Amino acid sequence: MTEPTPRAGRGGTIALLLASSTGGVGQHVRSLAAGLTSAGIAVLVCGPAATEEQFNFTGVGARFRAVEIPASPTPADLRAVTAFRGALAAEPVAVVHAHGLRAGLVAVVARPAAPLVVTWHNAVLSGGLRGSASRLVERVVARGAQVTLGASADLVARATALGAPDARFAPVAAPPLPDPHRRREAVRAEFGVGDDQPLILSVGRLHPQKRYDLLVDAAARWRTRDPLPAVVIAGSGPAYLQLAARISAARAPVTLLGHRTDVADLLAGADIAVVTSDWEARQLFAQEALRVGVPLVATAVGGLPELVDDAAILVPPGDVDAVDTAVGGLLGDPARRAELGQRARAQASTWPTEAETCAQLAALYAELSPDVAGPTPPDAGAPSTGQR
Predict the structure, then answer these.
(1) From its phi and psi, is residue 40 left (phi > 0), alpha (psi between -120 and 50) or beta?
(2) Residue 6 included in any domain
(3) How far are the Cα atoms of 286, 338, 340, 366 from residue 292, in angstroms, in the given order?
(4) CA distance 30 to 378
(5) Burial of 74 (0-12, 13-18, 19+ CB in 10 A)
(6) How do residues 81-123 score in pLDDT, each as one tens digit?
(7) Has residue 8 been placed in a domain?
(8) CATH code at 17?
């Protein structure tokens, strides 16, 4: 693919750096690249080649340089630092913006001449040696960036506590979903769900952090309900085999759909959306569910309470009884589901759009570097690709 020619006359380049991503971080970087380039700002995206294949940053006007940042710290980080330094040396760079702690560490070690911004998208949940190493990375990145942005208020507080000189809240907007391609009846027919049978949906990476084991265990209790609810989980990831075994052992009415790009269709067919994670900032699926008015049950973790306010039912993390009670209550109360759907749309209308998110960041870049004009970009993005 031929890369776009750098744009002249609008100041230096904005360099966006990310590590391996198959979901929200890659979506956000693509949205930001689209908004900035449409406003006449040159953008260079650096990250693993697989991210370009998945998110097509060059397709929205950015240029791309491969910088292979593995998912976990390894000696390969030194090669990533060298590659990133080479990318920055090739042209005038006004601001470096790294996304996530892994990319943030590479950027801090590379010591760019331009101001460094790092967005924290996730919390450190690991224990043991890996958790200790990750917490050390947190401290290094917090102190090494001129500005730290947190996707949720708890991340801002964490960065501040670790010594970040300037930490700010910067919500990440979910890209808009396309209109559904199929009617509700067709979506439900795919899963053999009748008109009177509830369809419960969750979407996300199959990773221990998402705690889909709780949803499976709760669903096993619903086998005695009439009509029998059907639960579908869309996503792929390392926990697939464990979840499949758990579903089989519990005889739970749960289907693992694998990776799907038709989330808009799935939501059109769903009666209830569920998020059971141990932690989230502003989870894409939670935003998507509320936007279209699907009643949501979610864990009260991270940035989810501030995201949904009273427009969803919040339950404690790790509590299968609470998930069972909350979903069971909605299954038996169509009026409550309708009320939550109305609240959901109203709450979603208060969130910043992709364009507003991009404008906030463009203003920050202009604040940090006089070489960057501070435009208000137009609509920043294409519809979501469905990646999580």
Answers:
(1) left
(2) no
(3) 10, 12, 11, 35
(4) 15
(5) exposed
(6) 999 999 999 989 999 999 999 999 999 999 999 999 999 999 9
(7) no
(8) 3.40.50.2000
Q: pTM of the full predicted structure?
A: 0.87
Count of H-run helices and E-run strands, the chain: 15, 13
| 204 shares its domain with 288 | yes
Q: Are strands 199-203 and 116-120 parallel, antiparallel or unpaired?
A: unpaired
| Tens-digit pLDDT profile for residues 15-66 | 999 998 877 899 899 999 999 999 999 999 999 999 999 999 999 999 999 9
Residue 232 forms part of a structural domain: yes
Total count of domains within the chain = 2
Residues 130 and 230 in one domain: no
Q: At what angle do helices 128-144 and 153-161 cross, to 10 degrees?
A: 80
Q: What is the pLDDT of residue 132?
A: 79
Q: Are both 193 and 169 inside the same structural domain? A: no
Order of all β-strands in the sheet with 199-203 = 254-258, 230-234, 199-203, 272-275, 296-299, 313-315
Are residues 258 and 342 both part of a single domain? Answer: yes
| CA distances to 73, 174, 290, 293 from 286, in Å | 30, 9, 6, 11
Strands (DSSP E) along 70-143, which ranges? Answer: 93-99, 116-120
Residue range(s) defining the domain that contains residue 253: 184-348
Give the tokens for residue 41.
């700002």
Same domain, yes or no: 212 and 255: yes
Q: Burial-class residue 46 by CB neighbours within 10 Å (0-12, 13-18, 19+).
A: buried
Q: Do 114 and 125 meet the contact criterion of CB atoms below 8 Å apart?
A: no
Do 23 and 136 belong together in one domain? yes
